[in-house]
Design brief:
By secondary structure, this protein is of the alpha+beta class. The chain is built from six helices and eight strands, in the order ββαββαααββαββα. It is globular, with a radius of gyration of 18 Å.
Amino acid sequence: MATGTGADPRPMTGEPVSLDLLNTRWIEDGEPVDLFAGAAGLTRVQGLAVWLGSVGLAERFRADASTLVHLLTAREALARAVADPADASARALLDAVLEHGRIRITLTAEGTGERAEFADPTWGPAWTAVRGHLDLTATAPDRIRVCASPTCGTHFLDGSRDGTRRWCSTACDDRVEDPRHNARTRER
């Protein structure tokens, strides 16, 4: 997605907001890359602006240093929680982020609605990502995946019918499976 700071350089976008936040770190040419640490020549705050734009939060929240610090806290907590859902310290970190926002129930023309409120708006994107993770763990905890390719590391929500998707994309599948297939074919 193009924003005022340039195109999003990440190999995978469009996942639910919590997984999209985790996908601000990825592997490229065997090296770790971080959207918030100079990826594609962007400054840290420009990387934040790209991410806010890609997840539809740019209109509601500013890309600034305080927002980035809070978002990095949420990203670390989410990474730990996804790696080990039983990690009590990760849950405590997630809860600490959630302390900075609340849901206000509203009445709209369509019926009951919700609106997130923050005493400090710089916590908004971090809180939104963690709240999104709660929604995923409530509806599809067994569908949160990390790409099986050792050269990828992106996170995705498995939407396959039988819940057995292992790769973030067919490109990753091909990079891992084609060499194996070619080796088996040569052996025959």
